[in-house]
Amino acid sequence: MQKKHYLVFATNFKNENSYLAEWLNYHIIAGVDHFYLYDQDGGEEARKILEPYEKAGLVTRHAWTHYDGTRYDGPTRSFQINKNHLAFGHCARNYRSNSAWMMKIDVDEFLYPPKGEDSLLPYLQSLDYENVKGLQIGRFNFGDNDHKSKPAGLVLESYLRREAQLSNHKDLANCQFLSGNRFCTSAHWWHYRLLKPGKMIKLDAADGLRINHYYTKSLEEYKNRQNVSRGRKRDEAQFVERNKGCNEVEDKGMLRFVPAIKDMLKTYSS
Length: 270
Prior knowledge:
The chain is an alpha/beta fold and 270 residues long.
């Protein structure tokens, strides 16, 4: 298997300047070797944050504000295409041939290695690449940890409580099975080639490969942040509803990555 990249992310982002560098650095440490970022922010600050990663060959940034104000902008009903879906389709069509594994993932989601591992790669390398077309990776929602305002530390050291059970999943696709995804209307799963059968593996174990989802964070951050499709309700009642049940279990697994992330933040900020 000769590919330019082994594990890549397809990600839309907007208004994520406080979180982009931490998210990138963690995943670089964990084994992601390239990021295809669809820039719906369009701001100078985001461009400056990403510039050193682009120069290092880690990030390909696509300007993605040309759909603003069109019928592809904003929340959609079921089976409607929006600018996020268009970005994922663009990534699949243009980069599946040079990548081994590709995942749709947001900046508030962190792909976490199996228990006992510091890298995502050993598990992926253990799979039968010719026959496994994708993984359905379970996701834990993390709660506010009683933070009313944005804490001074990193996300991964500030939010250490989550729900007890996995509540959703996202696909990590084997790119040789991936279709062009031109009409896929999901931010969670891919479309695969119809005439190339393969096995889909569903990962539900808390100790296995999984996603940590930091959606609400503090009340202040919840009110200030806005997702790329403008579907986030900013009122406190909705925050309480989304945060319900998400502080049940203490989970300090991410803390071991914090020192290395902080060292990388110094490197790239300089």
